[in-house]
TrEMBL record:
This is Uncharacterized protein. It comes from Pseudonocardia broussonetiae. It comes from the Bacteria.
Length: 82
């Protein structure tokens, strides 16, 4: 399972909303974090979120063991099973 953690603050809410549009992805809350999970890769398009670059690059709080970030650039954030 692939899991991405993002701090639950107003600036990061668009990431969770865009991720939740994918039917293979679930978005829950664990403490002060969004837990974005899927059995396969998680891909979030930056432009779809409307996030500015500063918010985009500071949004990742962590990934679950067994997950790894394979793309985090101006276009997308991609997390895959390790």
């Amino acid at each position: 399972m692939t899991v991405l953690y993002v701090l639950d603050v107003p600036e990061n809410t668009p990431l969770a909303k865009v991720a939740a549009q994918d039917p293979t992805v679930t978005v829950d809350r664990i403490g002060p974090y969004f837990a974005i999970a899927a059995d396969g890769p998680i891909v979030i398009d930056r432009r779809a979120t409307g996030c500015r670059h500063a918010v985009w690059y500071s949004s990742v709080a962590g990934v679950e063991r067994g997950s790894r970030i394979t793309q985090h650039d101006k276009d997308a954030l991609r997390v895959e099973p390790a």
